What we know:
Distance between the termini of chain A: 61 Å
Helix content of chain A: 40-55%
Strand content of chain B: under 5%
Number of helices of chain B: 9
Strand order of the largest sheet of chain A: 6-7-8-3-9-10
Number of domains of chain A: 2
Oligomer: heterodimer
Radius of gyration of chain A: 21 Å
Number of domains of chain B: 2
Shape of chain A: globular
Structural class of chain A: alpha/beta
Structural class of chain B: mainly alpha
Amino acid sequence: xxxxxxxxxxxxxxxxxxxxxxxxxxxxxxxxxxxxxxxxxxxxxxxxxxxxxxxxxxxxxxxxxxxxxxxxxxxxxxxxxxxxxxxxxxxxxxxxxxxxxxxxxxxxxxxxxxxxxxxxxxxxxxxxxxxxxxxxxxxxxxxxxxxxxxxxxxxxxxxxxxxxxxxxxxxxxxxxxxxxxxxxxxxxxxxxxxxxxxxxxxxxxxxxxxxxxxxxxxxxxxxxxxxxxxxxxxxxxxxxxxxxxxxxxxxxxxxxxxxxxxxxxxxxxxxxxxxxxxxxxxxxxxxxxx
Amino acid sequence: xxxxxxxxxxxxxxxxxxxxxxxxxxxxxxxxxxxxxxxxxxxxxxxxxxxxxxxxxxxxxxxxxxxxxxxxxxxxxxxxxxxxxxxxxxxxxxxxxxxxxxxxxxxxxxxxxxxxxxxxxxxxxxxxxxxxxxxxxxxxxxxxxxxxxxxxxxxxxxxxxxxxxxxxxxxxxxxxxxxxxxxxxxxxxxxxxxxxxxxxxxxxxxxxxxxxxxxxxxxxxxxxxxxxxxxxxxxxxxxxxxxxxxxxxx
Lengths: 290, 250
């Protein structure tokens, strides 16, 4: 059996104030997957993500890296954060340096890389997010979307095995979302393991291969995207709606379809399917009237 | 302040080695302090402004705006230098030729000095000073702090601005008493948010291996001796002209 890259077992976390944020939470992250942590606002997604790189120490349960438990001493945390890169939701919480290039160089320098190697990593990270032209710009002069990309580049420059992103598309416009997903897709194809939190069911449906449905500090169900999102009972328990694309696809399927049928994952795919169906419908009607 | 910062980052001389800007500016500043101000002052003011406007391509309007605030202070203060108090026959106030000359000299000298400094401020962003500061032996902790504060000023300025706009939208500044109250509330909430921001920034930095040091890769532009020499020659030229003028006047 293949050991998952990251395993969360029976995780419990209670904030110092006594508020329980996570309760008996179980989650597995397989190598090379795109996992969406899907849940409504305030259900503890961020708290969970902060456990994945050791920022928070659980009050119960454990987080395993490749099946092994990781310590919380300084050395173990360094190793941990080298492998699990966490991008926060708000880029201003992460960007501290005056220029973009300097900010991205922070991680590689902390890894102990030489100036040449660091420069190389910075260039590479900025290029893969298609923002190489911003390298010498002042951090505060950037737009929100640009800051977000710089924040991701700062983590990417450390070349983590798992990239954990907290609400990566929050606050971005449609163009920004497309751009970001394009970049993440490239990383995924290059072999990166991606974990991201979101409350956007459409995004999870379009983009994740696995979904962990999250509600009140626990994972209700983890599994293949379409299967989890079509689970009416669980989805309503998590106070989420089934994505429109999936619902339409199910409707089309009821109207006829073969067993090898795959639900469309994008607008374009659904529109193509609808067009095809309408044409077929026309032909049947035309045939009947003749 | 925003305008100064914007031009510092975008002017034509931004990418030049800071020493190429610092040495001429400081030399010119020294000249204005040493030579008779009425001769060197106007020359230095013109020279520094020309360098900012034609060299670094900062719009003249911006330069004038930056110089306007200190000029206003100088003009407000000058009359007091020109007037002298006399207590020998009771109490009297009068202008004296010496007083007027002193006022004029001080104003011109100060204005020239300010133009040298505004050249530096408008052409070199704070971040570019870091390598130079390090070289002259400022401890890295202090430099890190300066740079971090510089970055966070913009984060908080933005928060303060949106906070104020939100308060204004709810008539928070419609009367003087409300303004005082609103401003107090805004300051209080900003303080609280700064603490939260600090906590979250620490999480963000920890994710990138922060261990108490904010080291980053700073790329130093190569120093061009040719450009530095040219700039110094320009300063010397101004100095010589100032000296000659002084000879002619006396």
